[in-house]
Amino acid sequence: MQRQTAGFGSYSVATILLAFFAIFLIYPAGLMLKEAFLVKGEFSLESFRMLLRSPLHLESLRNSFLLAIVTTLGASLVVLPMAWVLTRFSFRGRGLINALLLVPLVLPPFVGAIGLKQLFARFGSVNLLLVQMGILSPDQPVDWLGEGGFVGMVLLQIFGLYPILLLNVSAALANVDPSLNEAASCLGARPWRLFRTVTLPLILPGYFAGAILVFIAAFTDLGTPLVFGFTRLVPVQIFDAVNDMSANPLGYTLVVLVLVMTVLLFMASKRWLGSRRYEMVSRGHVGGRETPASVVQALWIWTLLGLWILAALLPHAAVVLQSFSERWVMTPLPDAWTTEHYAALSAHGLVATSIRNSLFYSGCSAAIDLVLGVMIAWLLTRRRIPMSGLLDLCAMLPLALPGLVLAFGYVAAFDFQIGWLNPRSNPVFLLIISYSVRRLPYIVRAAYAGFQQTSITLEEAAASLGAGPWRVLRTITLPLVAAHLVAGSLLTFAFAMLEVSDGLILAMKDSFFPITKMIYSLVGRIDPNAPSIACALGVLGMLLLGICLWIASRILGRRLGQLFRAG
Question: pTM here?
């Protein structure tokens, strides 16, 4: 498909898009670099020396790296055999298993933390049940969550992030040429050696692409440690530094450290993987190399994967239970049930306001993303412009850029007198923009796929009859890719509804709280009903996200998984 040479209008659109990214993506990052490295106008590393002399921040760095490393290793140990089984064997119900394994994508760890605490705290459901069974002494409850909840955070991160790694590894396994495995088997290689010497090296690009995303997401997660009250982590230290950034430069230093770490990880992976050759004579075809599972094998697969799915969904199941519980104190299960907490969502003033706020923020951000995504995808697929590589990079960069970094950068960059631009007085505009920037890659990929699958012949015919580029786009191209655009818009809207870092940092006044900030606020209140109302709010968010994801999957089918892959 030939792309047309860009005209003045295309250059103008590309310039506007790059200006948008310069203001709301490059400028905040540049300002943080300036504040971290410049002291009185001169280059200085003093803030980094201060960071290394601070026991609190050093411990936070160690804990964050440990959390990210353990989470990535744990997810890898789960995903590698899981992906191998799902691509190696065919069995009844495999489609259902695949769908259930991706359900945690709509279950944010931030919300699941509430349920996990209810189940595994010192006086949570599990310990109380073991006491009733006579297995534990009431005076010696087991600390299942670890010191400060560290073990609980690791589990939640693995449960919430393994689908990202699974999508990347499964895609890589599906592209392995089956003839290579067959050749190795004919030469006597046993299954483990075949996997270690043939399959694993070939799937490394997909594995590392997903593993890096998991590592960065675990390192920068803010909501889960806040719910557990685990403060000695880099994201929490950055969150605490927002209110003191003018007097304390360590907040900038931590953010720059996270930003540099993110960039270096992606650069190192591209350089390392780019120096190796992974191409195959032909791509693999899953259907051609699948082995029908025997009844015993299928039973084992269903049992093991089913137990994992139950474990991953357990924290959020507890959230649902607590949202309906009238009283759940010192008992394994609620001893009274009610729907009043859902009624409180509309009756409670601030809670109802947070729902309206999130709907407004997410709706506006989805509309902005729809316009930006169509323009970017159209330029990349239909026009030849010299700045296409830069435009594509800016559009995809938010996949790797932690929301924590972007939100902190907005507070630093727009903390001046213009009220509607200052998050301390009115964060509405910046919340909408931050949601848009963070979720833009979803709709860009959806629109890009739609444009690629639509023949340019009809557009050329319309142009030959005198229709201008914008009329062709409006009357020919957009109707043909409408399904992709609807799916992408639904995803940007739904994931913006449960965006955590942006809402926690940018929404500083309760009248502007989105759903996620209100959940965090309710969890910390003394009111005994507040945690249950928070759970009801979380269930509402999960239902909305799940419905949107289901509709998008019906539209995009298997292509939906491509939106969540790193490459």
Answer: 0.85
